[in-house]
User: Which sequence fits this backbone?
């Protein structure tokens, strides 16, 4: 799945398949300006910052079990969001400090360091990634993911895929090659 925020005409947090199909709103009420998003892949939670409402909130992948993690004026200056173990990490764009927020107890906020002009944050760990089952976009033959000549996008399950072409090309009648 692909998760994203939008605060155009109607602010929302959404999800869709990697090929853009099955677009679903998971949060569309009591939300104004969601500007950053982080996923807890293990527990299937979506966290976001709303700088207008000055909140950090969370829902599950279906948009249920919504909770406010923390609220207050300091949220207005936050950008970027990452989750790792028990904490959310973000950057204060006013003073470029990296903040750590306990995601179960939002009152536990700690400044960790300062960086010059930071606007985004990512967490990397040494622990190996979980093994991935085979999927429809595996290279077959080598160099052609999912048999697609340009792009292979997973669809509604790991067994389904959609081929797409780079800009300036059109998908052939075989649904795999680009011309």
Assistant:
């Amino acid at each position: 799945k692909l998760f994203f925020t939008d605060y155009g005409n109607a602010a929302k947090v959404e999800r869709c398949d990697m090929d853009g199909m099955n677009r679903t709103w998971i949060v569309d009420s009591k939300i104004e300006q969601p500007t950053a998003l982080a996923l807890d892949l293990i527990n299937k939670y979506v966290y976001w910052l709303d700088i207008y409402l000055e909140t950090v909130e969370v829902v599950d992948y279906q948009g249920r079990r919504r909770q406010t993690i923390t609220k207050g004026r300091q949220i207005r200056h936050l950008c970027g969001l990452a989750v790792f173990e028990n904490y959310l990490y973000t950057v204060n764009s006013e003073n470029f400090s990296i903040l750590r927020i306990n995601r179960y107890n939002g009152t536990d906020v700690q400044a960790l360091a300062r960086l010059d002009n930071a606007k985004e944050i990512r967490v990397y760990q040494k622990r190996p990634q979980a093994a991935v089952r085979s999927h429809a976009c595996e290279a077959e033959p080598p160099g052609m993911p999912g048999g697609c000549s340009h792009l292979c996008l997973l669809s509604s399950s790991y067994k389904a895929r959609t081929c797409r072409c780079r800009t300036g090309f059109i998908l052939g009648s075989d649904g795999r090659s680009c011309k």
About this structure: The radius of gyration is 19 Å. Residues 54 and 75 are 5 Å apart (CA to CA). The chain is about 0% helix and 40% strand. The chain has a mean pLDDT of 89.
